[in-house]
UniProtKB/TrEMBL annotation:
InterPro entries: Cro/C1-type_HTH, Lambda_DNA-bd_dom_sf, TransReg_Diox_bact_type
Protein's name in the database: XRE family transcriptional regulator
Organism: Amycolatopsis albispora
Keywords: DNA-binding
A GO cellular component entry from the record: cytosol
Length: 134
């Protein structure tokens, strides 16, 4: 039970940080997200744990990805791909399907390179003799 309270507190704090950095009041965000002011306040204080649907509405109000809130809430695992994956996910001109295709291609390239590196013969180090046919 303690873990659920921690997650609710963490997501509430994250929402508050995002709201403050966007310079949006609690009242403005509640209106943009379509949730009541008291309910949003309870979420930010960690008293309530919002559903995925409410998180999506809050993300829309904050103009951030719902996925970012889902990760913070523990609904989704932390996405792979680092800054490239983050940039793809943040692009507002791509559809969700286009983003997923790009992420899949990017991850396949990364896996391919990882396999190639793992199977490549390591270079000879100083002091090792190399055999050559002359």
């Amino acid at each position: 039970m303690e873990k659920v309270a921690d997650i609710a507190s963490d997501i509430g704090e994250y929402i508050r940080q995002q709201r403050n950095s966007a310079k949006i009041s609690l009242r403005q965000l509640s209106k943009l997200a379509g949730v009541s002011n008291p309910y949003l306040s309870q979420i930010e204080r960690g008293v309530r744990k919002p559903s995925a649907e409410i998180l999506q509405q809050i993300a829309k109000g904050l103009r951030i990805s719902a996925e970012a809130l889902y990760v913070q809430a523990g609904i989704l695992d932390l996405p792979k791909g680092g800054p490239v994956g983050d940039a793809i996910r943040a692009d507002t001109e791509l559809t969700e399907r286009q983003k997923q295709v790009l992420l899949d291609v990017y991850e396949s390239f990364r896996r391919e390179n990882h396999v190639a590196e793992a199977t490549a013969k390591p270079p000879a180090t100083a002091g090792e003799e190399t055999t050559s046919k002359e």
